[in-house]
Amino acid sequence: MNAWYCTRQDVMGALDVKVTARAERDVDRAAANAVGAVDALTRRRFHPWTGTRYFDWPSRDQPTPWRLWLGQNLLVTATTVHSAAVLLDPADYFLEPVNDGPPYDRLELNRANSVAFGGGPTYQRTVEIAGVWAGAPVVEVPIGVLAGALSPDPMASANITLTTPQVGVGDVLRIGSERVSVRELTMVDTGQDLATPLSASAAGTLVAVADGDAFAAGQTILLDAERMLVVDVAGNNLVVKRSWDGTVLAAHTGSSIFSRTGLDLVRGQLGTAAAAHDSGATIYRWEPPALINSLAIAESINQLRQENTGYTDTVDNQNEWNTSALHKLREDAAAEWGRRARTAAI
To answer: What is the pTM of this model?
Structure first.
């Protein structure tokens, strides 16, 4: 599953690494490993997961039998709550802490109502809670719409019309009720051609197109064998940076314009199922907390640099990897997001 806390593009951009198949594989492996490092440090899982989790009902001998602690299963929203197969009315329970959540670390029965946990043959797995679970509030931003219908086939990929280019390998997206992760970005024919010739000069930064609304700043486009970074969009002109991603500067006349807006997806992720989606459906990108994203990038960079130096902490004689900065970032993340151990009075 390519569902990470930072994208391939985040790490390669921070390191200013040129795109090569080997570099991408190394970065992908480091970004995947960073998820485990962050989760272990904070004792949280930040990805949103949709589904049902099961709990033993609290012992009636304890001082607060109406309170169910969720442990590491932090809850963002509850769809249904059952106790001994009896559906509880939302008015019968509270998600706490009310002033700090979501996420919530406990469910408490409303003691003003006639409701109690239990009722089954045993206390085991008697409480069922269906909803969205995550270690932080779920923040999602729209990044564009589907350029065509997407079938429920798990192998189906999508083309996207971007409103923002900020999507990368490892991102978690939501289309309708389905969550997907981005396995790869691919070039797609935009159906537009270069309107005026471009010379083989880095100073030739204006790409004339038929419809500038189909592009966004930060997007990568391809003309013949040369990639270009769209820096800005001015009407039907794209301001670009030439010979992007290590490609060769070249002259172009009437070339077809391709954009990196094809999404090779891992479908039905994080508790959801692959489904059919209509053309024009809005695509949302999940945003991990900023500090978690920064830490994941740093952990990825640390692994890559350590591998290159045989885990000696030194990149070369003049450039030492500043591990104290990484330690400080870890401390900040643990202080902000680390889940505290719960103690009980005896």
So the answer is: 0.84
